Amino acid sequence: xxxxxxxxxxxxxxxxxxxxxxxxxxxxxxxxxxxxxxxxxxxxxxxxxxxxxxxxxxxxxxxxxxxxxxxxxxxxxxxxxxxx
Length: 84
Known about the structure:
Helices cover 0% and strands 70% of the residues. It is mostly beta strands. It has a single domain, classed as Sandwich (Jelly Rolls). The protein has a 5-stranded antiparallel beta sheet with strand order 3-2-4-1-5, with no helix packed on it. A hairpin with a 6-residue loop joins strand 2 and strand 3 (36-41). It is elongated and about 35 Å long. It starts with a strand and ends with a strand.
C-alpha cells in the first residue's frame, strides 16, 4: 500500500479471511523499491484480525510478504489498517 507520503507508523492490522497467512512479514519502504522487515508472524492458526506492533518507523509503502499459507488456497485478506 502506498500511504501517499512518508508517515510515522507503529502497527498494522490485517483482517484475514478463511485463506489466512500462517507465516508472514510486514515490510516497509520509503521508495517502493528497497524493503525492510519491521514485524514477523509465525505459526498463525486461524482467520480473523491480527495486529502486529513494532518500533515506530517512517515509511511511505507498507506490504505483507507471505511466506507460508495457512490453507491450500491463496490469501484472503480484507481491509489492512496502518496506525501511527
